[in-house]
Amino acid sequence: MSDYLTDFGRPKGTVPPRAALHSDAPSIDLSGAWRFRLNPTATAGDDFWAAGYDDAGWDTLPVPSSWPMHGYGQPAYTNITYPFPIDPPHVPTENPTGDHRRVFDVPADWAGQRVLLRFEGVDSCGRVFVNGAEVGVTQGSRLTHEFDVTAHLRPGAANVLAVRVHQWSAGSYLEDQDMWWLPGIFRAVTLRVRPAGGLDDVFAHAAFDHATGQGTLRVDAPAGALLSVPELGLRDVAVNTDHVLEAVAPWTPETPTLYAASVSTETETVSLRLGFRTVAVVDGLLTGNGRRIFFRGVNRHEFHPDLGRVVPPDVVRAELQLMKAHHVNAIRTSHYPPDAALLDLCDELGFWVIVENDYETHGFEQNGWRDNPTDDPRWTDALVDRMRRTVERDKNHPCVVMWSLGNEAGVGQNLGPMAEAARAIDPDRPLHYEGDWSSTHTDVYSRMYPPPDEVAEIGAAETGLPFVLCEYAHAMGNGPGLLTTYRELFETYPRCQGGFIWEWIDHGIRRGDHFAYGGDFGEPVHDGNFVIDGLVFPDRTPSPGLTELGAVFAPVRLDADAGGLTVRNGYDHRDLTGVTLEWTVSVDGDTVASGQVEAPALGPGESHPVALPHVTHGFGEAWLTVTARLAGATVGAGQVRLHEAAPRPRRSGRRFARNALGPAQFRDGDLVALGGLALRGPRLDLWRAPIDNDIFGPDPVADRWRAAGLHRLTHRVVDVDASADAYVVTSRVAPAGTDRALLATYTWTADDDAVTLALHVEPTGDWAVPLPRAGVALAVPGRLGAVEWFGGGPGEAYVDSSAAALVGRYRSTVDGLQTPYVRPQENGNRTRVRQARLTDPTGAGLEILGHPTFELTARRWSTAALTAATHTNDLVPGPDVHVHLDYGHHGLGTAACGPPPAPEAWLRAEPFDLVVTLRAVKP
Ligand code: GAL
């Protein structure tokens, strides 16, 4: 019978949930090679759990695993839509079912001891048999379940564990998170001895009083157990009572001090790492150790491009270190509890963590929320059970700052019992849930993707709960823009306590030389690349969005103002002791002086001017750049211009004769050669390969761009005037079928070795749409593969995402300028470029000088090819390098989910000028 599949998500046969504990009681890790077969339905081959069943013909599969990542069935991606009919609690008859078997030995000396079988994650539902006897059913994919298997085990002999895992169960209705559907036993399976008189559960409460510096420690544990914290002088003291400790070092994300503790009975010792901290809502603010909490957070899913939901421990540690290096101080475990080991690492490395229940029913919204489990008493048991499992397992972690009831599950009668269940276990931690804007059951007001003006309005309101953006700055594709804008709001309004970027990682699945997304596995219903919306690529290499985030949230702020640079301590809990300020003075990008000073020991929030070095810097463009470092890591950077460059001379003097002007050859108004270097263009161009923020959202600007024909401009030379000192080409640039146009006047002047183009553009007609980009495109030979520039860098930057770009001299290659967004789109812009060179291996090539600056992109494919590509392997290098020299770009914004660029980052169709000098350089 498969009634358990439709029993409104209730697990069966489990023992009560308890804390994840590091115990010295014996245990066996059952990870490894298991026998596996995949059935098309839930009930095929009903006999496989018998101890004597012959599984010799089955395949082997690693456990933990997501079986579609190992060639069984296919991954499938939907965001909101359920991939099966909404017919709760029923699931389709076609229900991929993975039968798993594993033979294991149990030591003879386990005889007579109580043993639990523990599953950390089974997606979506596992029916468990030990030596042929059914012991129960898991429900709640990302939740821990334990079964008492004492009666079924054979110590001193071989035992058989058989687990039937169904992709779909009633619980699938509760797990409509925006991610791949990936069934499997994807977290550890262990056997654990529970010694008589042992410590089934322990709950450590370690509070910190910021006024007195005292810690208070109480450990709830079975009576008679003894507690030791040697560093604090506690040896074998009583549990279940308060111990007041004079002068403990508090735990904060910036100072994650942990004290090793142990709790012992005669039969078992549990090791704990205590962090003393108090989280409380005080006067409308969420505080940690008495200070306002400021979440510089990310939403983290568990994802691996080759393994699916299985993330190896070394990968997790490295990704948390990457977050720390980019000044992320908080994680929301969207939208389910993570592998328990994550929280150990967050305690150790220092993050505030919102642990979210494994609960989302977003797809019911498409049904007008009809039959939503949140408001249906038939689901109450399952929902309360999920909440309990969430809180019980992770309650000992200082990093856990709040519990979240779930994500996007609407409102209804079950929220109350869920919240009560959480508070009954842990009255000390605040509750979060974004789905109910009345905040009836929560301690913070949480919203996702509010635009900046709404955040300001909420911030300015006189009363209310602490305000948190559980999601904002949707990091899909190129972006997000607006990070600085949001940070300023969080710094302006105390009540706006920061938020969590959506999201940490692109969930692209590796397929040969590229990453796949929704629809690539033949899913009949899918949401395409909406699953590719992270700050890091699927292989966890940082995207420019993460670099930007790192600059925006760098704790040592070096702000340029009229008087020079001001250093500000943006840490919440620590002073600047140990921070070194390394400075350089550069002239035209070349370093002329450098040194270092200790930062003043400013407390949190304090600022102080930085004394500027007195350096003679000649006549070029001089910059002071200061980088703050702490223990080898960059914790801040800032720049101030000490001296502006004199305007560059525009080249002139030569007259136009026989299609030539100085070193330049023209044909039909186009430049075709420069001092022996073949090139084509430059021509006015407005198109960029739309970024995801141009394409998605309620009113995609890319639709308006296409409707306006900006991707198919035609050029008509109106006039060529070679009579004066300049060669002047007037062009009317317009898309077919409209009378909207841009009049472009290209005024060329030259001297012996360079030409200067002064482009003036005047829109005519109705231009309600902003422009994607505005500038010129030209093509140069592909051998010009080396790039050097003096301008913003080293990475990609756009008008509303340029906090990380410092003015300097940088070297790269055309290939190195590309950002491999999983779905190809506009990328790689280098901003405020004063001068650039594209050269071949001999050093010959093209130099471009700005008057004063231009935006630069260069790539081995055309913008049309970039626009047409759907995956990175569609981008095939051609014979040319396509160079764009732009006056400007439309901002990035975060409209794929959230607001468009701020008004000042719009590129409106207005008259503009772009002036550049081009020179062929010799080796
Ligand atoms: C939110 C949701 C996330 C994700 C995001 C869009 O509504 O909570 O899970 O779907 O939108 O990428």
TrEMBL record:
PANTHER family documented for this protein: BETA-GALACTOSIDASE
GO MF term set: beta-galactosidase activity; carbohydrate binding
Domain of life: Bacteria
GO cellular component annotations of the record: beta-galactosidase complex
Annotated InterPro entries: B-gal_small/dom_5, Bact_Beta-galactosidase, Beta-gal/glucu_dom_sf, Gal_mutarotase_sf_dom, Galactose-bd-like_sf, GH, GH-type_carb-bd, Glyco_hydro_2
Name of the featured protein: Beta-galactosidase
Gene Ontology biological-process entries: lactose catabolic process
Species this chain originates from: Asanoa ferruginea
Taxon lineage: Bacteria, Bacillati, Actinomycetota, Actinomycetes, Micromonosporales
